Every structure is written in structure tokens, then in C-alpha cells.
Amino acid sequence: MLLAIPALSRDYFFNTIKMKSLFLFCCSGLIFLSACTSHSKKILVYASSEIQVDNSQQNITLTEGTTHHEKELDFSGSAPVTLNIQTPAGKFTLEAMEDGLYLANLKTDTVVGSFQRVGTGGGEGRITQEELSQKIDSLQKLVLGQNQSIANRNYFIPPNKISKITTVTNAKIFGPYTSVPGSFDPGSVPELYKFYTNNEVREILARLSGMNK
């Protein structure tokens, strides 16, 4: 024998199902939207003149110059980013295909750099002759691009090239002619990197070689 369900109870029952279905639909939509908007790319641009960028952030104009300049460009979405660059020497394009933090070198000199472990950077204390020799050897290889390795997180970026540094877009990069302050807390950022120009590294090597005698 079937039991009759009062009309009020039936309405309550079906309304509850509808509300739960709507809730699940909304949650699914929010998850989908979150997944769609979680993609991002950050491109750090180095140049030897002022970096002029339009509203799209994808058209860059450079002039003649000798002073180091930096500019951060932020992009959302999963689509590749193409930078259209106009320089006194001509036009070219650079592409960032995947999510992550990139470095675009628009200088006339190669830039080199590496991941910095906690406690490294500026404000170093006294080191031994063996450590000094190892540092000189490492810098010599880096300036020649000999120890460039994704696994070692060492980077050699020639002029007018772009390189993906890390998937962590809020990593901190200290650029050429800037020391990592001794007061800087490496724990305040997820990853830390230091970059130099090749000319800058040669000057450092000259000083270190004098210390190693």
C-alpha cells in the first residue's frame, strides 16, 4: 500500500532538492571559474633605456641608452603572450608560452643569474680560500654559459632573448647593479634569484681573483 505524501511535504521535499541542486551547480561554477582565472604569467624586462609599454603590455618601445631599467608585466589567462619589441636596431618578438615568471633581456649584454639559497647574497661574511676559488670557478662557468642548467637553476640569457625562470610568479629577482641587502629576509619570498650582466661578472671576477692571490 502506497502512502500519500501531503502537498506541503511534497513541495518542501522538491524545493529542498532544487536548492541543493542549485547550490551544487553554483559551487561547480565557482570551481570552474577559479580554474580558468588561476593562470598567470609575469615577465620581468631588462633594458638599457626607458621601457615604454602600451596598455596591452605587449608592445614595447626602446630608445638608445646606457642606464639599466627594469619593468614588470603581468598577464592573466592560459594563452601564450607575445611581446612585440621595437628598438633602434629593428623589430622582433618574444613569446612566453607557459605560466610562470620570465626574464626578457633587451640589453645589449648577456645577463646571467642563479637561484640563491637562504643566507646567500649581499652582506656575506668571511669565506675560506677554497670557497673563494669555488665561487670564482662557478662565476667563470656561468659567464660562459657552461653550467647553465634547469636542475641547478642557473641562467644564461643573451641579448633579445627570454627565459622562463620559475613557475612561482611571486619569486623575488634582484637584478644587475643591485646587491641583495644584508637585511633582506629570504623567508619573506618563496624563491630568491640574483642576476648580473656579463660585464658586471667580469668586474666581480677581477676583484675576487685579486683576493685569491
Helix and strand topology:
Blueprint: H1 7-37, E1 40-47, E2 52-53, E3 59-61, E4 69-76, E5 81-87, E6 90-96, E7 100-105, E8 111-115, H2 129-143, E9 154-157, E10 161-166, E11 172-174, E12 192-197, H3 198-211
Parallel strand pairs: 1-7, 3-5, 11-12
Antiparallel strand pairs: 1-4, 2-3, 5-6, 7-10, 8-9, 8-12
What can you see in these coordinates?
There is one protein chain. The protein has 213 residues and is an alpha/beta fold. The protein has one domain (38-211). Helix content is 28%, strand content 31%. The chain contains 3 helices and 12 strands. The chain has helices spanning 7-37, 129-143, 198-211; strands at 40-47, 52-53, 59-61, 69-76, 81-87, 90-96, 100-105, 111-115, 154-157, 161-166, 172-174, 192-197. The strands form 3 sheets. It has a 4-stranded mixed beta sheet with strand order 4-1-7-10, with no helix packed on it. Strand 2 (52-53) and strand 3 form a beta hairpin. The longest helix has 31 residues, at 7-37. The termini are far apart. The model is unreliable at 30-36 and 120-127 (pLDDT under 50).
